[in-house]
Specification:
The protein has about 350 residues and is an all-beta fold. The protein has one domain (about 30-345): Methylamine Dehydrogenase, Chain H, CATH 2.130.10. It is built from 1 helix and 29 strands. Strands 2, 3, 4, 5 and 6 form a 5-stranded antiparallel beta sheet that branches. It has a 4-stranded antiparallel beta sheet with strand order 1-29-28-27, with no helix packed on it. A 4-stranded antiparallel beta sheet has the order 7-8-9-10, with no helix packed on it. Mean pLDDT is about 90; it is low at about 1-20.
Length: about 350
């Protein structure tokens, strides 16, 4: 972690008043766009080829809100969908939501194609270009439902023996999925849809909610909540290469192969940037100050910008108990406070 230079002391003091502080470094919040709208939220997804940003909003009814990735202007929505995440298959131009049922739409026109009945409790989602499949992650069985991106048919299900949070693909037929309640990373053969290995984090990281991958060097970055660490592993054998501290309340991770940096977003108002100096050398480059509760992220591969989502909340009512996983209690969302936050150099 870099020290804050004297020239930034005043700026850091102002940030501290807002409830968070920032290390010196190349990244900063470039802009915050208050887009408003009612409904809860979880994941955010950048369709880099289609230049759109997808944000599911839960509620009754829910919807998937869509924005221009370059301008963040509204670009439409997929109505009557209450889910957690979204993903787009670049070849078929079909979009999908992690919801029940799963919604399938044309990513060019945003027209609904159909809905797909699935079991479990859909949460995370991954589009894998290796064989054109969509993976719907669920904390309840079946842990993974596999969907053919071309026609929306269900190819099968995968039993992980635990609750998955985030998945990555090496593009060569291997999937890696962090199992939040087992402190493990499952390795899945994309062809057979079978678990081939489980990598134990050996107490170095627990309750991992984010997973990113340096595909070129075959390195996994597991962002964990207990303790608050990023664990770097060799994807070939699960050997732990290093661990580094991150902020509190991570719920997502991404890797930028152009800059060789991994990012973990945290609900405590920090975005941790880890630099991969070599396949065996890693350092915390910066902790960027972000708004509170901006705990999920996506990356625009064209610009290298990191996009986060958050909202403002009223104080919790007296006697309110912490939520699942020890999350801090909160009051009602402040009307029209939902925002998209852009971080870059």
């Amino acid at each position: 972690m870099r020290r804050v230079c004297s020239a930034l002391v005043a700026g850091v003091a102002m940030l501290a008043v807002a409830g968070f502080a920032q290390d010196a470094g190349p990244y900063k919040v470039l802009k915050t766009v208050k887009v408003g709208g009612a409904g809860g939220f979880d994941y955010v997804y950048a369709d880099n080829e289609g230049r759109r940003l997808y944000i599911p909003r839960s509620g009754s009814p829910g919807r998937v809100t869509v924005f221009n990735l370059d301008t963040l202007e509204p670009a439409g929505e997929i109505p009557n969908v209450s889910g957690h995440g979204a993903a787009v298959d670049a070849k078929s131009h079909h979009g999908f939501s992690s919801s029940q049922p799963v919604a399938m739409w044309d990513s060019k026109t945003l027209a609904m194609i159909k809905t797909i009945e699935v079991k479990g409790s859909p949460d995370g989602i991954l589009a894998d270009s290796f064989n054109g499949r969509i993976y719907i992650l669920s904390h309840r069985e079946p842990n993974v439902t596999v969907i053919d991106a071309n026609d929306g048919s269900i190819a099968g299900t995968i039993d992980l023996g635990g609750a998955p949070e985030q998945a990555v693909s090496d593009g060569k037929g291997h999937l890696y999925i962090d199992i939040e309640d087992k402190d493990k990373i499952a390795v899945v053969d994309a062809k057979t849809m079978k678990v081939t290995a489980n990598y134990d984090l050996a107490g170095k990281g627990g309750t991992c909610a984010g997973l990113a991958m340096d595909v070129k060097n075959n390195i996994l970055f597991a962002a964990c909540r207990n303790p608050h660490t990023m664990v770097m592993l060799n994807a070939a054998d699960g050997k732990i290469l290093d661990t580094l501290p991150i902020g509190m309340g991570t719920d997502g991770a991404v890797f930028n192969p152009k800059t060789m940096e991994a990012f973990s977003s945290q609900g405590d108002g920090t975005l941790t940037v880890i630099k991969e100096n070599s396949p065996t050398s890693f350092v915390v480059e910066q902790n960027v100050a972000t708004p509170q509760r901006a705990k999920t992220l996506t990356m625009d591969s064209k610009t290298g910008h990191i996009l986060l989502i958050t909202a403002e909340y009223a104080p919790p009512p007296a006697g309110a108990q912490p939520g699942p996983g020890g999350r801090a209690a909160r009051g009602q969302m402040v009307a029209d406070s939902f925002s998209i936050v852009v971080v870059g150099k």
